[in-house]
């Protein structure tokens, strides 16, 4: 590729604060002027008082420790001393500083941010799949994060925002030229884990479901009767993942997921399949476990692309913290973005901006050869985070580590030689002691000779054993209901057993 760079920038800052003497107990006014190339832009502001708490700020969309605000916003903030952090997604530098707010008088924050990269100019378009924020707030949230595609979860188990009002006539909204959100996203999150649904025209009737019954497969089957539906496995460690994979009805799996938060890592797997925390200790252990499980999926010959979601509105992340970039040739449309996502022309990230090509091809490409093939990897890495090395993952194992400084100078990761079928991808893991901050390309696939897909016996057995574990965990009192819940797991066990038998690799 033409340009190779790796930027570790904490901030490009020009901050000026004006304040007047304390005069009353009422809130102070803070005028926000965040500029990029001299133009005011919307942004996200994290604000903390002397005790580390975030004050309530009216009018602007707020969540956890931050608000988003439009260009030239005015904020009402209680008087006091604050520290703040200003961000606008991973493609921009960040700004941090201190602020004194005086009651009854205006104070101004004026800050300049700069682009680290402009991925849309390269054909990379950002999106995420797990947003629980109010629909009316979504346009500003997306603009503040420079996010381009964002379906909104409006029905989730027993919650359904359309239960007392009709949904809009147009479910897909395009605004600001090239930004899209769809208001009929849904989530079925129960004992077996969570599936996310996109592209439906109405909610699935899951409000009466209990923790285990009916099986999520009943609703998955219903959704698949509708054209254009996209189904995402929200995390790869949910207990029902082997059954969902075996069904052949899922499109993507979330490897940049909401266990990875901006300033902390959720240490466990909730009610999912737990990792060995001695082998994979916190805080990064869950992140590595997520990666391992995804590699098991790929090792079984299943070509399921990765996805990303932040669960903003439920967990503390901003919208778009975990995001997926999809490469498109030509104009962005909502349908083309999802087509590219399913095809795996993508990378996921919660910080580093990793764009890699293999022999000039984007992720998701299938290389074919009658006997052997050699593939050279090149790319660009940028971002605010320190990254020491890039890792080439081949058939689930680290094939090679390339120091970032070496990659920056050469622009290449070297060559991979395949004499048999397999897959590979490239990932980076940032030096961050608080959370699992990373980026990963979606995989490329290699078909050599008559064997088109490598199937690992160990990975197939891994899911076969997992299915047995899941069967043993099913607790349903009614015998008929229990039989219905178990039936897809028995089918999955047959699927994985057959895959073990036809495996062509260890």
Description:
By secondary structure, the chain is α+β, with helices and mostly antiparallel strands. It has four domains: 16-113, Sandwich (Immunoglobulin-like), CATH 2.60.40.1120; 119-350, TIM Barrel, CATH 3.20.20; 352-454, Immunoglobulins (Immunoglobulin-like), CATH 2.60.40; 457-501, no CATH class. The chain is 19% helix and 32% strand. The chain is built from eight helices and 31 strands. Strands 11, 21, 22, 24, 26, 27, 29, 30 and 31 form a nine-stranded mixed beta sheet that branches. Strands 13-12-16-17-18-19-20 form a seven-stranded mixed beta sheet. α3 packs across α8 and α7 (457-473) packs antiparallel against α8. The longest helix is centred in the C-terminal third of the chain and has 23 residues, at 479-501. The protein is globular, with a radius of gyration of 24 Å. The two termini are 35 Å apart. The model is unreliable at 1-24 (pLDDT under 50).
């Amino acid at each position: 590729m033409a340009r190779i760079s790796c930027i570790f920038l904490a901030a490009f800052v020009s901050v000026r604060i004006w304040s007047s003497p304390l005069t009353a107990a009422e809130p102070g006014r803070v005028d926000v002027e965040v500029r990029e190339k001299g133009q005011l832009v919307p942004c996200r502001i994290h604000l903390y008082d002397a005790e580390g708490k975030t004050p309530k700020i009216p009018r602007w969309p707020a969540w956890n420790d931050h608000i988003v605000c439009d260009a030239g916003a005015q904020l009402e903030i209680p008087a006091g001393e604050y520290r703040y952090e200003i961000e606008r997604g991973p493609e921009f530098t960040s700004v941090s500083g201190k602020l004194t707010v005086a009651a009854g008088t205006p104070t101004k924050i004026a800050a300049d941010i700069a682009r680290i990269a402009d991925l849309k100019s390269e054909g990379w378009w950002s999106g995420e799949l797990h947003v629980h924020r109010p629909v009316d707030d979504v346009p500003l949230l997306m603009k503040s994060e420079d996010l381009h595609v964002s379906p909104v979860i409006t029905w989730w188990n027993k919650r359904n925002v359309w239960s007392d009002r009709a949904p809009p006539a147009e479910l897909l909204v395009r605004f600001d030229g090239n930004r899209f959100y769809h208001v009929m996203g849904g989530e079925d999150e129960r004992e077996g884990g969570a599936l996310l649904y996109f592209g439906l025209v109405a909610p699935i009737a899951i409000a009466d479901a209990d923790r285990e019954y009916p099986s999520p497969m009943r609703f998955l089957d219903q959704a698949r009767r509708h054209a254009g539906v996209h189904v995402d496995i929200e995390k790869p460690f949910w207990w029902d993942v082997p059954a969902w994979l075996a069904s052949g009805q899922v499109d993507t799996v979330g490897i940049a997921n909401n266990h990875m938060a901006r300033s902390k890592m959720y240490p466990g797997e909730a009610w999912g399949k737990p990792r060995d925390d001695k082998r994979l200790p916190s805080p990064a252990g869950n992140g590595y476990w997520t990666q391992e499980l995804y590699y098991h999926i790929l090792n079984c010959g299943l070509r399921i692309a990765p996805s990303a979601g932040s669960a903003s509105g439920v967990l503390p992340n901003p919208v778009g913290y975990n995001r997926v970039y999809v490469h498109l040739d030509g104009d962005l449309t909502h349908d083309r973005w999802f087509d590219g996502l399913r095809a795996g022309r993508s990378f996921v990230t919660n910080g580093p901006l990793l764009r890699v090509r293999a022999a000039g091809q984007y992720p998701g490409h299938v290389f074919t050869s009658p006997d052997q093939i050699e593939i050279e990897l090149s790319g660009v890495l940028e971002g605010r985070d320190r990254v020491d090395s890039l890792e080439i993952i081949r058939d689930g194992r680290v094939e090679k580590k390339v120091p970032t400084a070496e990659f920056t100078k050469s622009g290449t990761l070297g060559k991979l030689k395949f004499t048999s079928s397999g897959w590979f991808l490239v990932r980076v893991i940032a030096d961050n002691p608080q959370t699992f901050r990373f980026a990963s390309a979606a995989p490329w696939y290699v078909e050599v000779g008559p064997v088109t897909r490598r199937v690992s016996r160990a990975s197939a057995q891994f899911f076969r054993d997992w299915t047995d574990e899941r069967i043993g965990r099913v607790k349903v009192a009614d015998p008929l209901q229990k039989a219905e819940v178990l039936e897809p797991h028995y089918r999955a066990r047959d699927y994985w057993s057959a895959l073990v038998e036809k495996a062509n690799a260890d």
